[in-house]
Structures are given as structure tokens and as C-alpha cells.
Design a protein that fits this description.
By secondary structure, the protein is mainly α. It has helices at residues 10-34, 39-55, 59-62, 64-71, 86-97, 104-113, 115-141, 155-161, 166-200, 204-221, 225-244; strands spanning 144-145, 151-152. Helix 6 (104-113) runs antiparallel to helix 7 and helix 9 packs across helix 10 (204-221).
């Protein structure tokens, strides 16, 4: 293991970070072997989707038309609580998910599993719609209003406010922050850095530096960051539609 020393130069820092990332990757692989890479975890996820699908009477089918009306703004009212509209929330969610899993993940799954992987992805997505429906509904029901008037919700809030599992809620919140680097920031910045290097010749360190500056500056200098994210999420949603669907 490479140990960081005081008064080390940039080369030593790079070596330290490389070794640190290798050690971190080993820890994550060990955790994944007991959780994500285990059969019981897949059965638990699918079993949860099957249970809620039958318990709620296939809501992903019965309420699909109602969901489209909500997204179109039929039930939007002036003065409702919340930071974004229904469509803005959808656009923001899609802007953070489309690409990492829905495009790259699908391509990798078909490459590894062949055409049969497509069937299982459709099946798990169908069951996952109900699981997501339950999660979002509970998160919305037990959300909280922060001191600045914005909304704060998520699974950790109904764990804390309804189930009274404060320790589990804390662990889940920390795990969510850690997973955001692996499922969101790292693959995206890697793709951006590789594209900038291949197109303009910018080194990966320059792109990573500006990306870090943006992610540090944006949350600390934009008081209404949720509204701004939703505003740009609208246009990103349309761009993705025309880029990948037409």
C-alpha cells in the first residue's frame, strides 16, 4: 500500500490516488460479491417487485394513463408545495439515469447475455416499475420541508419518520452518496474526459479539474439549484428524445 507523505510532489499524489482507488475498488468488489453479485440479492429484488405488483393489482398498467396526465400537467396547481413540476421532476430523473444504465448497461447486457438478456431486462423493468412506484410514493408521503423552504425526501425519510429506523436511514443516506460516485459521476466524467481527449486533445486531468470546479461551485452558489436542474432537464429530455429516438 502506498502511504501519503507530507511535502510530496504531484507525482507522489497521483501515485497515492491510484493506489487508493485500487484499494477502494478491491473493497467494493468484496462487498459486491456478498450483495450485488449474490443470487439472493437478485431474488430479493425480483421478489419485491412481484409482491407489490400483485398486492397493488398491477399499478404499472392500471395507472399508466393517469401517470401520463400527471406528467402533462393536468393536475398542476399554482401554489402547490414542491420545488418543481411533475414534468420537471421526470426530466430531472431521466437526465440522471439515461445513459449510464439505460444505454451503456443495456448494450453490455446484450453483449454478455445475448438476445435472452433483452427479455429479462424487460421483465425486471416491468416489475421494477411497481417497486419504484412504491418507493417514490412513500418518499413523497414522508418527505420534510427544510429550513429554506425546499423539499427533502427519499427512502431515508420514510425509514426515519415511518419505520423509525434512524440508524438504517443514516446508513442508506451514506450509501446513496457513495453509490452516486460509482453509478453517476465516475462513468460520466470518464466518458466526457475520453471524448474531450479524442476530439480536442485535452488531457484527462484538465477535464476532471473543470468538472470538479463545476460540481463544487454549482451547489454552493445556486440557491435554487433544484429549479435550475429541472429547467435544464426539460431541454435535455427533448434533446435525448431527438438524438436517440428519431
Amino acid at each position: 500500500m502506498y502511504v501519503w507523505k507530507k511535502n510530496s510532489n504531484l507525482i507522489d499524489f497521483i501515485r497515492f490516488m491510484q493506489q487508493f482507488l485500487q484499494d477502494l475498488n478491491s473493497v467494493l468488489e468484496l462487498i459486491d460479491s456478498y450483495i450485488g453479485g449474490s443470487t439472493w440479492f437478485v431474488l430479493l429484488l425480483l421478489g419485491t417487485g412481484v409482491f407489490f405488483t400483485f398486492y397493488l393489482g398491477f399499478p404499472q398498467m392500471r395507472y399508466f394513463g393517469h401517470a401520463l396526465k400527471i406528467v402533462r400537467g393536468k393536475y398542476d396547481k399554482e401554489g402547490d408545495q414542491g420545488d418543481t413540476s411533475h414534468f420537471q421532476a421526470l426530466a430531472t430523473a431521466l437526465s440522471g439515469t439515461v445513459g449510464t444504465g439505460n444505454i451503456a448497461g443495456v448494450a453490455l447486457a446484450i453483449h454478455l447475455g445475448g438476445a435472452a438478456a433483452l427479455f429479462w431486462m424487460i421483465l425486471t423493468a416491468f416489475l421494477g416499475m411497481t417497486t419504484k412506484f412504491v418507493e417514490v410514493t412513500l418518499s413523497h408521503k414522508y418527505r420534510e420541508v427544510t429550513e429554506d423552504g425546499t423539499m427533502a425526501g427519499g427512502p431515508m425519510y420514510y425509514m426515519k419518520n415511518r419505520l423509525n429506523w434512524k440508524i438504517v436511514a443514516t446508513i442508506f443516506a451514506i450509501a446513496t452518496v457513495v453509490s452516486s460516485f460509482g453509478t453517476g459521476s465516475l462513468p460520466q466524467i470518464n466518458s466526457i474526459a475520453n471524448s474531450m481527449f479524442a476530439t480536442f486533445g485535452f488531457t484527462h486531468y484538465i477535464t476532471g479539474h473543470f468538472g470538479f470546479d463545476y460540481h463544487w461551485w454549482y451547489p454552493t452558489h445556486c440557491p435554487s439549484k433544484r429549479k435550475i436542474s429541472a429547467f435544464y432537464g426539460n431541454y435535455l429530455f427533448y434533446w435525448l428524445y431527438f438524438r436517440y429516438c428519431l
